[in-house]
Design a protein that fits this description.
With 377 residues, this protein is α/β, with parallel strands linked by helices. The longest helix is centred in the C-terminal third of the chain and has 26 residues. The radius of gyration is 20 Å and the shape is globular. It starts with a strand and ends in a 5-residue tail after the last helix. The chain binds zinc ion (ZN).
Amino acid sequence: MSFGFKLTGTERGGARTGILTTGHGDVETPAFMPVGTQATVKSLSPDDLRAAGTQIILANTYHLHLRPGEALIKEAGGIHRFMSWPGPILTDSGGYQVFSLADLRKISFDGVSFRSHIDGSSRHLTPESVIDIQLDIGSDIMMVLDHCAEYPCSRETAAEAVARTTQWAERSLAPYGPRVTRDGYERVIFAIVQGSVFEDLRERSARELTSLDFPGYAIGGLSVGESKKDLYGVAAFTAKLLPEDKPRYLMGVGFPEDLVEAVARGIDMFDCVMPTRNARNGTVFTSRGRVILKNSSNRDDFGPLDPDCDCYTCRNYSRAYLRHLFMAGEMLGPRLATVHSIRFYLHLMEEMRQVIKEDLFSQWRKEFYEKYGKSDG
Ligand SMILES: [Zn+2]
């Protein structure tokens, strides 16, 4: 089964809808990928994910390389079998994690050396080894090792990160090319455009990477502390530099309103820890805005968390019960909150796909804000 991408609709303003075909099933875009860093979306089973409408999940190469190690995942028959998720999986390369989590990292043009944040052991990752690790893990979509410069950074630092990211992207293609068939399905490599908030550097990065003809392109280095104006502006600017017929993935973004604004600017794929991490801490996103479950206003509210939501949590439990679970520190609380938040994000994507097809996106966007603006958070 080979990888493909087909646009099925483009709205006047630039929002797109399409279908990604992978060896483990199709993904309708725009798509949100729940984050399963350690080969698990925290507190959810694959059945929960399916019930929420999940079509693809993200796992992390850096974390899985350190623990349990790609050799064990390969021995288990690959990540799909290991975690019992038969659908498509994208693995992040770990570049971002090396730069944000690992100690004593040393970057060279060869790769990056660092100490594991788990046991302090010395590690070295290269663009080639990161692809081999992902091939052993068995993901459908692999990401190149990139250099994500910190924010804010000088133009010089951003330019160096762009140059390194291009060199590393070329090297990640050298051993096998952008498409590798193993175990009966095709795995593909996506490149990552860097350049911080500098338009000329984004342009250079996009030009160099698109000349290498990857099956898909990500926009990296955003949602790292820049303003919303920069986030939306750079995403829009960069999306226009990418080929029409390839999927565009905005990494690590974001709040529900960020997804709406990025879809409006022609982005097709997203991942973010926002819904799951916040849910575990008792903050959930709803069609009426953000809700902090521990707020006293929920104490005797026997209505559902979100009257417009069809998730298991909203169908069966009240705000008062959810607040009680969080106040009592019960583990069902974070789980039920996560079930809702993931469903809310995926339902949002479903709605956007529908209104793009009907060319009603602009009108829908206004209605979304009319409701969502009434936030109690
Ligand atoms: Zn719900």
